[in-house]
Amino acid sequence: MSLTTIAVEQLSKTFGRTTVLQDVDFEIDAGDMVALIGPSGSGKSTLLRLMVGLTRANREQRSRVTIMDRAVQQRGKLTRCSRAERCRVGYIFQQYNLVGRLSVLTNVLIGHLGSMPRGRALLGRFNRQERLRALEALSRVGLESLAGQRANTLSGGQMQRVAIARALVQDADIILADEPIASLDPRSAREVMKILQRINEEDGRTVLVTLHQVEYAREFCRRAIALKQGRLYYDDSIQHLTDARLQALYDDEGLCELFDRRPQQPDTITQPAAAGAAL
Ligand SMILES: Nc1ncnc2c1ncn2[C@@H]1O[C@H](COP(=O)(O)OP(=O)(O)OP(=O)(O)O)[C@@H](O)[C@H]1O
């Protein structure tokens, strides 16, 4: 297996007449923890959906998404992935996507469905080993004591931790988390980010997380990828993401000033002319 675990090449997406992503290109190495940031509407969620094949990109010759050496889509067409291949990517949603009337444990067990024999999966018959793994995952997110409780009685932070436990049971090598802390209070948000960081550091799972709060990106991620108006605007170490660059990312006036007064740095700020021209 190559070191690159996610490769996005020349990805563009147009809805009707609106282009929401344009020529986005980046690679993520196995085991990295990356924040995907950018103003509201810059295309972060659309990009994640393209990466897991929930949406098709524009049909352009060199457009491709590869996850763990396997193309998910190319030239705007989805490729056929086996159930096992789909299980290698865990997707965590802002709104948790739990089944509220089922117990916490059953929600976590659902993570096994993709790798179980179809017959057992259809009947929802989980064996002892699968139950033990689900309990172990719940213990890693600190919720084993709530295993029997209905999911819709949990707080938002607890629900998100159950969603992470479900991805752990799925044994996903890559976790894509779409604004997992957007609906949470600061304490719960920090807990969820710490859990994501732990599974990245302890298990070596690759994590790509979209965030609105840049301070969490700075605290928990090693690298940032930023989108602005659908274009890749920044892709580098989180340490080089200065306040001036952040201001430029979120504030149009700042962007003009940055490009007027400073020499361009093509290694870290990509496509500055295009981003500037879009103002
Ligand atoms: N299915 C769709 N049909 C039409 N337009 C869409 C669709 N999905 C997304 N868009 C548009 O694409 C743009 C980017 O949306 P997206 O949700 O990817 O941005 P985002 O950066 O994740 O925003 P936020 O941070 O507010 O969640 C928005 O203008 C949105 O309205």
TrEMBL record:
<dbReference type="InterPro" id="IPR027417">
    <property type="entry name" value="P-loop_NTPase"/>
</dbReference>
<protein>
    <submittedName>
        <fullName>Phosphonate ABC transporter ATP-binding protein</fullName>
    </submittedName>
</protein>
<dbReference type="Pfam" id="PF00005">
    <property type="entry name" value="ABC_tran"/>
</dbReference>
<keyword id="KW-1003">Cell membrane</keyword>
<feature type="domain" description="ABC transporter">
    <location>
        <begin position="6"/>
        <end position="254"/>
    </location>
</feature>
<keyword id="KW-1278">Translocase</keyword>
<dbReference type="InterPro" id="IPR050086">
    <property type="entry name" value="MetN_ABC_transporter-like"/>
</dbReference>
<keyword id="KW-0813">Transport</keyword>
<dbReference type="InterPro" id="IPR003593">
    <property type="entry name" value="AAA+_ATPase"/>
</dbReference>
<dbReference type="InterPro" id="IPR017871">
    <property type="entry name" value="ABC_transporter-like_CS"/>
</dbReference>
<keyword id="KW-0067">ATP-binding</keyword>
<keyword id="KW-0547">Nucleotide-binding</keyword>
<keyword id="KW-0472">Membrane</keyword>
<dbReference type="InterPro" id="IPR003439">
    <property type="entry name" value="ABC_transporter-like_ATP-bd"/>
</dbReference>
<dbReference type="GO" id="GO:0005524">
    <property type="term" value="F:ATP binding"/>
</dbReference>
<dbReference type="InterPro" id="IPR012693">
    <property type="entry name" value="ABC_transpr_PhnC"/>
</dbReference>
